[in-house]
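@channel sequence for tomorrow's demo:
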Amino acid sequence: MSRQLKPRNSTAVFISASYPWVNTLEWETVYDWLYSDEVELRKRAVGRVAAWRARVSVPLCIELTADLVESGIWELQQYVKGATEQPLTLMYSMALTR
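structure tokens (generated this afternoon):
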């Protein structure tokens, strides 16, 4: 004899978590962009995390990852220009000391 599952009572209270991303697909996309080999996708990911920061509180690990990726992008751009290392050192230091 098999049991059939009945839907939950409509008066049940559900606890919903609040995340900055709209759905899991958006989060997975931004995650893939952050770890992409393409600089343009990493820039897009950093921009998306910045938009999330403007709306709500973002988990620290995501903020840190975005800050490190942004520092890496800046490093690539400045390396081509031959800039000094001091601003880069400060960017990495600020990301890591949070």
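heads up for whoever presents: The two ends are 58 Å apart (CA to CA).
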